[in-house]
Amino acid sequence: MTHPLTGGDGSIRVLVADDQPLVRAGLSALLNAEADIEVVGQASDGREALALVETLKPDVACVDIRMPHMDGISLTRELNAAGRENPVPVLILTTFDIDDYVFGALEAGASGFLLKDADPAVIVHAVRQVAAGLGTIDQTLTRRIMHEFVQRRRLQPVSGTTASSVLTPREHDILLLLAQGMSNEEIAVELVVELSTVKSHIARMLPKIGVRSRLQAVVWAYQNHIVDVPPPTNVPSS
Fold first, then answer.
1. Which domain, by its residues, includes 35?
2. Which of 98, 93, 80 is nearest to 119 (CA)?
3. Would residue 169 count as lying in a domain?
4. What's the sign of the alpha-carbon dihedral 18, 80, 212, 209?
5. 4-aspartylphosphate (modified residue): where (predicted)?
6. Are residues 30 and 121 in the same domain?
7. With contact defined as beta carbons under 8 Å apart, do 108 and 73 qualify?
8. For residues 92 and 40, what is the distance between their CA atoms, to the nearest angstrom?
9. 27-51 burial string, b = 16+ CB within 10 Å, else e?
10. Based on the domain organization, do 133 and 56 belong to the same domain?
11. Sign of the CA dihedral 118, 137, 43, 40?
């Protein structure tokens, strides 16, 4: 069942998609308690969420992975399809700590991935990060996921060698700083440039390496060995 709400001026408009009524209600209550966030709609499956996006125009979609009719990964792929006029940043929230789900979400264009048992403050912060164009991933997953992604998956056809002839030196520097987890503001301070300059460089860089989000850019940097990640302690070295 759908429950459209009206977002306040200047607030982050959020669509919540989850097949469990209690989860939808709880997450909506959590987000609506924030002065700068407004849940404008709720959906019980991916197909319903896709229809709501067209009418409600959310800034962020908080999406479960396992849903009937259309799962969260398929929904994410639709919301970030190449050529879509208004792509919607997606924050995946799931109870399942399964690598293939994380990989699938990243490949589909998700801007963030969190487990549902994350601290409420972390979830709220993640919504703000995704709305601001910043990727986020659960800290308990980051190193393992990056390591496994490098070992097992190819996200984009552009190689690190190709990128060296495509990216400008400044774009390369910014990519390295993104991979360190720096925000736009921190990158501007590090490089002694204006914030608007950093945003412009990132906007030009993403399509050059064939990715749609900052998070995918970081994954791409790791898998092309522009940045190396040490294996986590629970993953045996090869």
1. 12-140
2. 93
3. yes
4. positive
5. 64
6. yes
7. yes
8. 17
9. bbebbeeeeebbbbbbbbbbbbbbe
10. yes
11. positive
